[in-house]
Specification:
membrane; ten-stranded mixed beta sheet; Immunoglobulin-like; transmembrane helix; transmembrane
């Protein structure tokens, strides 16, 4: 989990906690309850962008914040203040860099799942002979786009080596089966591993929801076992087709991302910038903007201070590209876009060519002061 995600979640928890405490302990003070509730609501929404947390730092005055902890039991007040202080420290660290250009200090935060790792589920079943059958169902990934193949791997452990095993599967929505008769073949490397491939185009075009389910039935010497694995299937809203020429723009490395937009709307783009030679993840990048249909562009900005944390002047690789169109009114789901390649090369430049300035956000300073005032 990235630092920015951590402080967003922490702030959400702390402010929600503050709201609950206010309602429980200060219900007679309607002004206080209203103020805390407003802050909690503003900060608990998962759609609230990080730059809007909290949207009004002065909403809770210092006296209001201290009055919350003054009426708590000492041990609860200490815990509350410690949580607030931790959030303030994390926010302060994150605010040193633009929200769209966060340095990656822990490579595990940028780990990219391998095939059959992301959508992977194991269930142990008791057998009539007293043993245990362990069944693992895995897909090569979780999110698919129309036209892609869905690769299925089934692994079975714990049964007799000479047992007769026959797996089959169907793809279903929450309402009905959509594709049946999926058959498996035994893997060339193991008699207890079975493989199957489903063409996404063979699944109904008229899906009630992009959330689908693979339902697998396994017959083992007359005993029947079941396992399921969820996945999503979308018609891509847009496609990342390439990267334009990168250049130094003041204190930033500007990376133009070329996008073929099928559905006009408001788009969000995230990616990881890594060192080309060492494959070390350097910066988590993000941007957003409204795009019309056609060949368009979003620009990622890697700040010099974030690049210097990783001590790499490039060349770089842009990978783990995630694009999606925000849900429109009446839509239940955001609609993801795809990338025509897993990664793209990005030219690097000497740090001397950048404006070596610190990132300063005056509003972030106010927010930090606001958070620390809660801990006093």
């Amino acid at each position: 989990m990235s630092n920015s995600t951590k402080w967003i979640l922490s702030i959400t928890v702390v402010f929600a906690l503050a709201s609950v405490i206010a309602v429980m302990l200060f219900s007679e003070d309607e002004t206080l309850v209203d103020e805390l509730s407003i802050v909690a609501k503003e900060n608990a929404s998962p759609s609230t962008p990080p730059t809007a947390i909290p949207s009004n730092p002065s909403l809770l005055s210092k006296s209001t914040a201290s009055s919350v902890t003054e009426t708590m039991p000492p041990e609860d007040a200490a815990i509350f203040k410690a949580q607030i202080t931790q959030v303030a420290d994390m926010y302060s660290e994150t605010a040193q860099y633009p929200i769209g250009s966060q340095p990656i200090r822990n490579p595990a935060e940028a780990y990219q799942p391998k095939a059959f790792e992301e959508a992977n589920f194991t269930v142990p079943y008791p057998m009539q002979n007293g043993g245990t059958l362990e069944v693992n169902a895995a897909l090569n990934k979780h999110q698919y786009f129309a036209g892609e193949d869905i690769q299925i791997r089934l692994q079975i452990k714990g049964n007799d080596s000479d047992a007769f095993i026959e797996p089959s599967a169907v793809v279903a929505s929450s309402e009905k089966d959509l594709l049946s008769g999926i058959t498996f073949v035994e893997s060339a490397t193991s008699t207890r591993e079975f493989l199957a491939t489903v063409r996404s185009d063979d699944i109904s075009d008229d899906l009630p929801s992009p959330e689908l389910l693979l339902k697998v039935t396994i017959d083992v010497d007359g005993e029947t076992f079941f396992i399921t694995q969820g996945f999503t299937l979308f018609q891509a809203s847009a496609a990342v087709t390439g990267i334009g020429r990168s250049e130094v723009d003041d204190a930033n490395l500007l990376i133009p991302v070329k996008i073929d937009v099928e559905e006009a709307g408001y788009y969000f783009l995230n990616a990881i910038l890594e060192d080309e030679e060492s494959a070390k993840p350097l910066v988590a990048l993000q941007t957003e903007g409204r795009l019309k249909k056609g060949n368009k562009e979003l620009r990622l900005l890697a700040h010099i201070q974030a690049l210097k944390v990783g001590e790499s002047e490039g060349p770089y690789t842009l990978r783990s590209i995630k694009l999606y169109r925000g849900a429109k009114e009446g839509e239940q789901f955001d609609v993801p876009g795809k990338s025509n390649k897993k990664s793209f090369p990005v030219q690097g430049f000497s740090f001397e060519q950048y404006s070596d300035v610190k990132h300063v956000d005056p509003l972030a300073k106010e927010r930090e002061a606001f958070l620390r005032s809660l801990a006093k």
